[in-house]
Amino acid sequence: MTADHRSKIETRPGEPEKVPTGERLERAAIQLFSTHWYATVSVAEICREAGVSNGLFYRYYRNKEELFRKLLGEILASIESELRELSGSSRHGRLSNFVDRLSAYTEAHPDLIAIFREGQYRFFDYERALMEIYRRALSAALGRDCSLADYLFALGGIRFTNIRRSLQGTPLDPGVVVNVLENGAFPGLTFDVAKVFEIEVRPPVIVAAPAARERLLQAGKRLFGERGYHEANIHEITDAAGLSVGSFYLWFPSKECFYAELIGLVGREVRHFITSNLLPGLNRLEREMQGIWLFSIFLSIDRYCYNIVREAEFVLPDKVKEYYDAFERGYRHGTDAIEGPDAPTRINFLLGVSHYFGIEIVFDHSPENARALIEGIGQKLAGGFSSGKAAGLSEDGRFAERDQPHGGA
Hints:
The chain is mainly alpha-helical. It is about 65% helix and about 0% strand.
């Protein structure tokens, strides 16, 4: 982040100890919210971290949520400032500047990124606001308006690769990101819409009489997915499973170990559902598109998996890293394996497209919209932005490509 764009919520080493109370509260909140799940942070803890009395807190904020929302708003403002007036006389130059600025911001502010990761989950209006900031910046980089499919292709890849590097230490090469944006992930390939979407899907297997361990896991998945890790307790899980509390500890030494097992289970279920339904004979682009389509179907069947993994980013971050690492390993095997030094960036770009597509689907349950979005994303995976075309909805609701001015590109 440049000095001109520096956010007032940044920490500033070397300042005198006399800091205004409001700023001390914000800094304390950043420290706590970036390392703990929102539900576990109390006003008392924020005040202890800031070195002020609990009563003083309420002179500035009505409650914890008001302070958290203020931080989210200031993060939005700092990102918008960072992306203002992209440099570059060509599309390639502006895209490179766009990617570099977001990469530098994420690397410099992992605490703010962690806070916003929970904010987008808990208060979705802030995610929508950030989405509009990114869409305006991407439109400026492209020299034309961008569609939702354009956004999910570009920002899904950019945001996820940055987050994986910042929070989980995954390698990232911004130059590879720009290359994928310009030329696509699978340049030269085309897709057959019927082969991608017109498939018979085998639903997940349902066990008629599950054993005690499986009953506990299914009950835990539902309760954690509906209410969250900290709000659901072991007594409620065992009651829902029709078992005693003692039976829980026969299988799991703690609630945390139980949650870790659930995260692994969710990952295995998603991967098995997709791989078991993928059709043979597809090219690499069609496989990627069909995988995204199957992911959207899985989310419509199992509405708890998304919430469980997102909350685990704070409860068990190492397990979430393992969750995404397992998906990354899947891209490195088989006849269509992605290999080479740029593989981590390319694979996580693709994971990011699916991830942010999933966020969109969680809040929009229309399968018609999902299919149209995947068609638009597929167009960009095949050719990137170098085609100078944007995915848009035609009158019959299907995606069509339309020529756009390059804006100097």
